[in-house]
């Protein structure tokens, strides 16, 4: 009990820690957007235009639903610090933007909607303030603000992509440039924030330069310093020498980055000290130097993991990624090749080893008396002590193996002079020679196939060894699904295939939350996503669960599972002739995967142990072939070939093989010398017949595939030929058996009791005098455990 309490306490502590970690991350995200909105709403361009808060609100409302209220509060608070009128103008623009986006008859792009909201909002406000049309200079500032807002919307949209893609989409030049523009506007908004001798603007700018220099080197640091400094200068209409100070700071800090953090801090101080003595007109005062001194302290306190992450984002390890992809492909390809090699070895053993172990083909022929000689009264004279017949027959075989007709004729004449039954003896010798030639040809054919398969196996071994040194590419099933969904204009940001086993597949798709109801999501799945999954995996799927997720951001998760719509119930009746222990019938029912069931019924020739062994071997080999994903028709042709080559004994077996698809509701049937299959559908009777000979019986073998679509509550019956007696009319027996089955089904007798009851009554009228086996199974809809009634219930009481 103490251990259990400790485990429960540990689990609760872990859950508490995880919840705290999630809340901490959410708190920092809220703080980030609050400060971003606060400073952007304070950013003033050309000392008159304030265009940057509305673009942020538009993009955050579209992509960061959970952060929109934080942005709204921070933006209004920042605008209020400028003036009450600016806060009212911003509120008016927000209202106009919401009205424009809700206009039903025409949907504008986001940047156009933002521009229109600012245009109408400013014109309405300035018109009220000036009691008419605003002056030309005021209109000019309005046009500037509209253009800047239009461009800022594009920059914000480039930088703030969907939340799930923020760190994974990659940092292109366009996105990095957009981020620098946003940073410059934020710095513009914090220029007036000074506490004693500490200024927030020089602090943030120098900290950004130091981070860029340490993570990216000279090019990144110089780019950040130059672009941000120039944009801030443009915003304040002050093209001063400070731009040169910022550019030199980035270059020198980047040059000293090889010395570590100390080098970056020292390098960032050198340009400022130089320009302090060089140009007295620059605003390099006490606030400036105190702020960059604080930057050095904060820079040393930043975690190394942040710089490692930034360095990997700027300079991705492409060689390592390619190496991992090659390793992944090598492992998976080797696994597939090993599976194929096992299949090759199985085929080699099946075709050659199992059926040639007792065959002997030798050059030295042992001559023994034929049946004609054994029944002749002169046997002792010919095959006695003198044994004068054996050399003559041996010479005849030698002559027949040659190409000289004269030698063959002389050998036949010598036998005719010696034997009084020469005509019959020569016929028997010809027959024996023909059998020997055929055995040799069959042996040669099997050996040739075995050697070819062995060579193929050797090539696969060499290929698997060379795979480790090859550079290959791969494409996962998730990428294939993402491509197909994009073609269908379905925006799914994450796909997880939890299980890729046939019939047991589980796929989870995550979609952005666009305020759609579960009914709309389900309609999307039914119309578009489920057909795509069927095309990719070649099996039907069903929607298992639709759930709303809030962590790490609001989105919708839809869980798909392989649709096994039917379930099977079966019963088997099997009895040996005269209630003996040995039966020539063999049966097997097993799942190839949850959505596919195999049913086999084989009948060996006769009622002996040899017949039982032959039917069991046929079922076992058929099952092995299916385990290697061999096509059933191909498997039956292969088994016929290998069994027909076994000429030591004259044995064969019938097989009735069926596949029941529980996903689509279909029955495939292959028959080789077997009886008809009966499908009972209410009062209707459907029969599936086959015309192929038993496996291994005829030299030429042909088999056809029959497919029948099954319905719920269909009963399928497979029988061996021992059920019907040859002493009575075949059709009458069949009709009587079907009527007995229908009567039990209509009376809703459980399937476990139907066959025993039916066969007892059937045997009373038509005695069963052979091995017999009856397999009966039914398919029905899969009903959830929580269902109150069945889909096919007769009524509800």
TrEMBL record:
Pfam families: SpoIIE (PF07228), SpoIIE_N (PF19732). Residues 567-779 form the PPM-type phosphatase domain. InterPro entries: Bact_Sigma-Reg, PPM-type-like_dom_sf, PPM-type_phosphatase-like_dom, SpoIIE_N. One of its GO terms (molecular function) is phosphatase activity. It comes from the Bacteria. Signal peptide: none annotated. Keywords: Hydrolase. This is Stage II sporulation protein E.
């Amino acid at each position: 009990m103490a251990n259990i309490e400790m485990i429960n306490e540990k689990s609760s502590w872990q859950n508490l820690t995880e919840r705290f970690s999630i809340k901490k991350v959410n708190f920092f995200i809220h703080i980030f957007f609050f400060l971003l909105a606060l400073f952007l709403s304070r950013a003033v361009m050309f000392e008159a235009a304030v265009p940057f808060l509305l673009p942020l609100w538009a993009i955050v409302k579209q992509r960061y639903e959970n952060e929109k209220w934080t942005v709204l509060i921070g933006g209004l608070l920042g605008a209020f610090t400028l003036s009450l009128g600016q806060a009212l103008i911003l509120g008016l623009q927000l209202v106009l933007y919401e009205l424009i986006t809700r206009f039903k008859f025409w949907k504008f792009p986001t940047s156009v909607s933002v521009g229109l909201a600012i245009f109408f909002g400013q014109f309405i406000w300035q018109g009220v303030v000036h009691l008419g049309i605003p002056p030309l200079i005021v209109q000019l500032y309005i046009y500037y603000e509209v253009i800047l807002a239009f461009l800022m919307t594009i920059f914000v949209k480039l930088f703030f992509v969907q939340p799930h893609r923020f760190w994974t989409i990659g940092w292109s030049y366009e996105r990095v440039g957009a981020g620098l523009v946003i940073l410059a506007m934020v710095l513009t908004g914090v220029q007036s924030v000074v506490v004693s001798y500490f200024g927030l603007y020089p602090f943030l700018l120098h900290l950004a330069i130091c981070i860029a220099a340490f993570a990216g080197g000279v090019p990144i640091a110089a780019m950040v310093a130059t672009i941000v400094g120039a944009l801030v200068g443009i915003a304040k209409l002050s093209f001063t020498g400070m731009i040169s100070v910022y550019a030199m700071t980035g270059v020198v800090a980047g040059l000293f980055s090889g010395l570590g953090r100390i080098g970056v801090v020292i390098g960032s101080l050198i340009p400022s000290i130089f320009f302090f003595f060089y140009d007295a007109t620059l605003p390099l005062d006490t606030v400036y130097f105190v702020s960059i001194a604080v930057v050095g302290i904060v820079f040393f306190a930043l975690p190394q993991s942040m710089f490692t992450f930034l360095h990997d984002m700027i300079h991705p390890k492409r060689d390592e990624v390619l190496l991992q992809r090659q390793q992944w492909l090598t492992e998976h390809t080797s696994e597939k090749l090993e599976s194929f090699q096992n299949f090759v070895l199985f085929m080699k053993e099946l075709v050659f080893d199992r059926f040639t172990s007792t065959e002997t083909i030798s050059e030295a022929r042992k001559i023994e008396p034929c049946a004609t000689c054994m029944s002749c009264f002169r046997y002792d004279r010919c095959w006695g002590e003198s044994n004068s017949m054996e050399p003559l027959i041996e010479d005849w075989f030698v002559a027949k193996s040659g190409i000289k007709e004269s030698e063959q004729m002389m050998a036949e004449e010598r036998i005719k002079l010696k034997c009084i039954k020469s005509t019959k003896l020569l016929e028997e010798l010809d027959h024996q020679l023909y059998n020997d030639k055929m055995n040799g040809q069959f042996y040669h054919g099997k050996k040739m196939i075995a050697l070819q398969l062995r060579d193929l196996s050797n090539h696969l071994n060499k290929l698997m060894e060379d795979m480790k040194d090859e550079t290959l590419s791969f494409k996962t099933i998730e990428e294939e699904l993402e491509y197909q969904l994009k073609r269908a204009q379905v925006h799914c940001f994450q796909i997880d295939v939890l299980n890729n086993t046939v019939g047991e597949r589980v796929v989870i798709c995550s979609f952005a939350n666009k305020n759609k109801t579960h009914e709309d999501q389900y309609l999307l799945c039914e119309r578009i996503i489920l057909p795509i999954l069927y095309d990719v995996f070649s099996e039907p799927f069903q929607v298992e669960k639709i759930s709303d997720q809030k962590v790490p951001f609001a989105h919708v998760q839809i869980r798909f599972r392989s649709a096994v719509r039917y379930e099977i119930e079966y019963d088997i009746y099997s009895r040996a002739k005269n209630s003996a222990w040995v039966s020539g019938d063999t049966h097997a029912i097993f799942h190839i995967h949850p959505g596919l069931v195999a049913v086999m019924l084989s009948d060996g020739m006769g009622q002996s142990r040899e017949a039982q062994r032959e039917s069991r071997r046929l079922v076992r080999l058929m099952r092995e072939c299916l385990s290697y994903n061999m096509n059933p028709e191909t498997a039956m042709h292969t088994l016929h070939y290998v069994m027909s080559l076994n000429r030591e004994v004259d044995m064969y077996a019938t097989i009735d093989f069926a596949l029941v698809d529980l996903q689509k509701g279909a029955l495939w049937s292959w028959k080789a010398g077997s009886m008809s299959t009966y499908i009972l559908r209410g009062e209707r009777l459907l029969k599936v017949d086959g015309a192929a000979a038993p496996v291994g019986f005829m030299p030429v073998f042909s088999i056809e595939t029959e497919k029948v679509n099954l319905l719920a509550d269909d009963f399928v019956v497979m029988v061996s030929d021992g059920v019907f007696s040859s002493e009575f009319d075949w059709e009458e027996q069949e009709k009587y058996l079907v009527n007995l089955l229908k009567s039990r089904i209509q009376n809703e007798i459980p399937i476990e009791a139907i066959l025993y009851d039916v066969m007892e009554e059937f045997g009373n009228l038509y005695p069963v005098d052979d091995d017999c086996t009856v397999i009966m199974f039914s398919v029905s809809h899969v009903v959830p455990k929580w269902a109150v009634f069945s889909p096919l219930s007769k009524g509800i009481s």
